[in-house]
Amino acid sequence: MHKQVGQRGFVDQLLEQRSARKAHLARIASLIDWAAIDRLAAPIYASQTGRPSYPPLVMIKALLLAQWYGLSDPGLEEALDDTLSFRAFAGLSLQDAVPDHSTICRFRQQLQQHNLSEAIFCEVGRQLEARNLIVKRGTLIDATLIEAQAAKPGFDQGRAATSTVDKDADWTRKAGKSHFGYKAHIAVDQHSGLIRKAILTPASVNDSEVADALILGDEGAVYADKAYEQRGRRQRLKGLGIKDRIMHRSHKNQTGLPRWQRRRNRLIAPIRAAIERVFGTLKRSYDYRRVRFFDLARNAVDLNLLCVAFNLRKAAAMWG
After folding, report:
1. 197 DSSP 8-state letter
2. Which of 30, 103, 107, 299 is the most exposed, fewest CB within 10 Å of its CB?
3. Residue 318: inside a domain, yes or no?
């Protein structure tokens, strides 16, 4: 049976998908001065007795591919071996052998040991700012719960127990339900939706404890829900010349909010809520509902790489 005119076959669709992926990766590749990222990774070379099998920049780009396409370390090894656009983005020729999953895992550990994942995240942010993609009109701050990779440890004599597999994960309660794992705290540029800061903590850490570290000091305003209200924080924002857009909450012996505070909350709420779209994208498109590893340090590296991947993909769409 002959294919009808205008009918798209499987091969046609596959070629279109490959072409779109190649173009997308090419846009990202052209967006960043990768040499600056490569220089940041120099300590990895310095720590070796001999030349590493793969340049650090190849490995960094490979880890970003894993974030964009939801690949495990073995899955990344296979994808690099099979996919030409992945090879081209990472800087591997057709003749080059690809890093195996154990090499990928060890490189991630080296990023952790040298505290490089946050440095890479900051450098990418600096370059996106130089392209005027980060406007600094305002910063939105919030946190979201992320499940532990380890199984919930249950209860010991009526009290929530700790995990023997992941000693950093912890319990918290939200909306009447118990959660075990971590909490991702982020600061998002109001205008662009790009992530400017990310901090991972055990789930038990209160949102407000991390808030001051999410305020960069160069934004025009800070937007946050009532969980972040604190007199000292409001005073600090005033002292920095930053507009205070933190929602109000009722305090002890207060029957309710004054009318002006309720109105102010209503005006702030829809602006602040834009950060929920970022969390939604991280959880739906990047499957960031559960951490991948069994300790805070490795999961913090993963969060930084996730935020780099998120920012580059979003910035490429804005720039293109």
Report:
1. E
2. 30
3. no
